Structure formats: structure tokens, C-alpha cells
């Protein structure tokens, strides 16, 4: 079953290739959506995909790329949305 989740990652997640790495992970998992930096230093996005693949993506978001330090992950199901690919904003 396909679902959509909003996520916000808090910690040292800007300037460490977090968005690009998240895009690469999403594409490997056949997840669509987007990711962007926020002014407060966090990263947010939306992800749509198969429930099992989303859980794998969520696990990845909890640690991110090697240079990142994730302190908290907000993960909330939202209304199903369709996206064309996975984009960095």
C-alpha cells in the first residue's frame, strides 16, 4: 500500500550532503517526493512510496549520511500525494 509521510530531520543535517544522499536513497527505494533545507538548520520533506520501502527510508533518515548527526526525526503520515521523482528544493 502506498502512503505519504512528512518528515523533518533535526541536528547537523545541512552542509553534509544530507539532501543529495536522501534523494539517492529515495531513488533506490522507488520513493517519490522532495527534500529541502529550512532556515532553522533542519531538513524537511515528503516521501511517497510502498509502506515497507518508506520504513527503510525512515530508518536511513534517522542517521543520514556519514557526516550528519541526527538528533531527532519527525515522521507523520499525511494525505496520499503523487510526485514526479524525488527532488531537492
Architecture blueprint of SSEs:
Blueprint: E1 2-12, H1 18-28, E2 32-37, E3 43-50, H2 51-61, E4 69-78, E5 86-88
Parallel strand pairs: 2-5
Antiparallel strand pairs: 1-3, 1-4, 2-3
Keywords:
Alpha-Beta Plaits; single chain; 89 residues; alpha+beta; five-stranded mixed beta sheet; 5 strands
Architecture overview:
The chain is built from 2 helices and 5 strands, in the order βαββαββ. The protein starts with a strand and ends with a strand. Helices cover 25% and strands 43% of the residues. Strand 2 (32-37) and strand 3 (43-50) form a beta hairpin. The mean pLDDT is 98. It has 89 residues and is α+β, with helices and mostly antiparallel strands. It has a single domain, classed as Alpha-Beta Plaits, CATH 3.30.70.100. Strands 4-1-3-2-5 form a 5-stranded mixed β-sheet. The chain has helices spanning 18-28, 51-61; strands spanning 2-12, 32-37, 43-50, 69-78, 86-88. The radius of gyration is 12 Å and the shape is globular.
The sequence of SSEs as H and E is EHEEHEE
How many β-strands, per DSSP?
5
Beta-strand level of the residues, as a percent range?
35-45%
Measured distance between first and last alpha carbons: 27 Å
Work out the count of structural domains: 1
Helix content: 10-25%
If you consult CATH, what is the topology? Answer: Alpha-Beta Plaits
Give average pLDDT, whole number: 98
Q: Flag low-confidence runs.
A: none
User: Biggest sheet: strands side by side, in what order?
Assistant: 4-1-3-2-5
Main beta sheet: 5 strands, mixed
Amino acid at each position: 500500500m502506498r502512503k505519504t509521510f512528512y518528515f523533518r530531520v533535526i541536528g547537523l543535517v545541512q552542509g553534509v550532503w544530507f539532501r543529495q544522499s536522501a534523494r539517492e536513497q529515495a531513488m533506490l527505494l522507488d520513493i517519490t517526493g522532495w527534500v529541502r533545507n529550512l532556515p532553522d538548520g533542519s531538513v524537511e520533506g515528503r516521501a511517497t512510496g510502498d509502506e515497507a520501502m518508506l520504513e527503510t527510508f525512515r530508518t536511513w533518515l534517522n542517521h543520514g549520511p556519514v557526516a550528519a548527526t541526527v538528533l531527532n526525526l519527525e515522521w507523520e503520515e499525511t494525505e496520499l500525494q503523487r510526485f514526479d521523482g524525488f527532488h531537492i528544493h
